[in-house]
Amino acid sequence: MSVASLKRSDADSPVARLQQVSHTAVRTKDMEAIRRFYEDFLGLPMVTSLVADFDVVTKAKSNYIHCFFQLADGSCIAFFQFEGGFRHDPLPRSSDPYERHLALRVDEKENVDQFAKRATSLGIDNFIVDHDDFYSLYLLDPDGEQVEVTWHKPSFDSIINSDEAHRILTNWLSKARGQEV
Known about the structure:
Blueprint: E1 23-27, H1 31-41, E2 46-55, E3 60-70, E4 76-82, E5 102-106, H2 109-121, E6 126-130, E7 134-140, E8 146-152, H3 162-176
Parallel strand pairs: 1-4, 5-8
Antiparallel strand pairs: 2-3, 3-4, 6-7, 7-8
C-alpha cells in the first residue's frame, strides 16, 4: 500500500496509538554552541548524550555524538555531530520561517516577551509576530535553524476541529489546483 492510497479511516488501524513526540533530530556542526543555545538560553536540560562508533546509514565505522534536550512534557530535541572526516558538513539551513521552523510552546505571553528581551540583550536577532491565534518570537539557533517560541492565545482552542480542518484543506487544495469546489 502506498501513502497515496491511504484514507482518513486508516488512521484507526495501527496497533498502538502514537502518544507524543519522542524526539526530533537534526545534524549540527557545533554541539557546544547548540548546547549553549538550547540548554543555557532556552532552558531545556540536556538529558542524554550518546556516542556511537558505527553509522547505521552508511554501515561504516564512524564517530558521532547524539545529544537530547528535554521539554517539559518529556519529549526531546536532539542533535547529531559527526567527528571531522566521517560525514560532510550539514546542509545549509533556511532562515525563512515558511521554509521550516521548530515551534516551542510556552504557557504565557509574558514568557515570549522575556525570551525576546533576553535574546536582544545577548545580541541574538529576533522578531515578534502577533498572529491571530498565536503570539510568537522568531530567532535563529547557532546552525541557522529557525526557532519559534510561541504562546497559544485563548482563541486557539476554538480553532481545534478535525472535521473543519479537513474541509478547509479540501477546499484550499481544490482552488490551488484550479478546480471548482
